[in-house]
């Protein structure tokens, strides 16, 4: 099992000074490594065909390119589980003041409330954060998550990993659906749902 994890939004709470009102974490789950490799190949070919350099990134991709991306990638077998945090519902002083604690807690929550999907998973996380943060997060997850869920995990750079780019696009599509300013906010989420890719979107309460 291969799992790709990415987020949309920031963990900060300065909502009047640019912090995002929502924070979304998502997992793209491949039960079959052959399907993951096929999806990787599709994305690589799309990047070449559409002249995308260096990477697919939801926030920087035109609508017509998003359409082609999601239409192409949905031919492969994967599923998506996501956690959506409305920061107005968070009252914990620690989570509101410590961005590392906020990220760690909700990543743990996403992986724990997985309907027992994660089994001996190889996990890749978009590689943001410094070395100390990554080391601390790794230790936290090993202590917090049932041992059978995680085989190994690593941080990776999205520019060199097509499947992390898939996670970015999928989480971006979910995040866009929570934007009240967008008339087509759920446009790409609908494509994922129509193709049976969305298994769970958990609105944290």
How would you concisely characterize the structure shown here?
This protein is an alpha/beta fold and 205 residues long.
Distance between the terminal alpha carbons, to the nearest Å?
A: 29 Å
Summarize model confidence as the mean pLDDT: 91
The multimeric state of the shown protein is single chain
Shape estimate:
globular
SSE-based structural type: alpha/beta
Determine Rg (CA atoms, Å): 16 Å
- In percent, how much strand structure appears in the residues? 15-25%
CATH class: Alpha Beta
Level-2 CATH architecture? 2-Layer Sandwich
Structural domain tally: 1
Listing every helix as H and every strand as E from the N terminus to the C terminus, the arrangement reads: EEHHEHHEHEHHE
What's the structural blueprint in terms of helices and strands?
Blueprint: E1 2-8, E2 22-30, H1 33-49, H2 63-73, E3 79-86, H3 93-97, H4 99-112, E4 121-126, H5 131-144, E5 150-156, H6 162-176, H7 187-194, E6 198-204
Parallel strand pairs: 1-4, 3-6, 4-5
Antiparallel strand pairs: 1-2, 2-3
Helix pairs in contact: 6-7
Characterise the protein shown here.
- The chain is of the alpha/beta class and 205 residues long.
- The protein is 41% helix and 21% strand.
- The protein has seven helices and six strands; from the N terminus they run E-E-H-H-E-H-H-E-H-E-H-H-E.
- It has helices spanning 33-49, 63-73, 93-97, 99-112, 131-144, 162-176, 187-194; strands at 2-8, 22-30, 79-86, 121-126, 150-156, 198-204.
- It has a six-stranded mixed β-sheet with strand order 5-4-1-2-3-6, with helices on both faces.
- Strand 4 (121-126), helix 5 and strand 5 (150-156) form a beta-alpha-beta unit.
- Helix 6 packs across helix 7 (187-194).
């Amino acid at each position: 099992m291969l799992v790709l994890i990415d987020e949309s939004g920031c963990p900060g709470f300065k909502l009047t000074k640019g912090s995002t009102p929502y924070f979304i974490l998502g997992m793209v789950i491949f039960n079959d490594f052959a399907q993951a490799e096929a999806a990787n190949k599709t994305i690589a070919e799309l990047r070449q065909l559409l002249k995308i350099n260096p990477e697919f990134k939801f926030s920087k991709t035109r609508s017509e390119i998003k359409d082609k991306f999601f239409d192409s990638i949905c031919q492969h077998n994967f599923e998506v589980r996501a956690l959506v945090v409305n920061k107005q519902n968070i009252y914990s002083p620690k989570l509101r003041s410590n961005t590392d604690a906020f990220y760690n807690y909700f990543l743990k929550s996403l992986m724990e409330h997985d309907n027992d999907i994660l089994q001996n998973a190889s996990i890749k996380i978009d590689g943001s954060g410094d070395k100390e943060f990554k080391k601390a997060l790794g230790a936290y997850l090993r202590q917090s998550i049932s041992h059978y869920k995680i085989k190994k995990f690593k941080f990776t750079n999205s520019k060199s990993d097509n499947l992390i780019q898939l996670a970015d696009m999928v989480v971006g599509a979910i995040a866009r659906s929570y934007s009240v300013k967008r008339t087509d906010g759920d446009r790409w989420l609908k494509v994922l749902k129509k193709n049976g890719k969305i298994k769970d979107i958990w609105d944290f309460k």
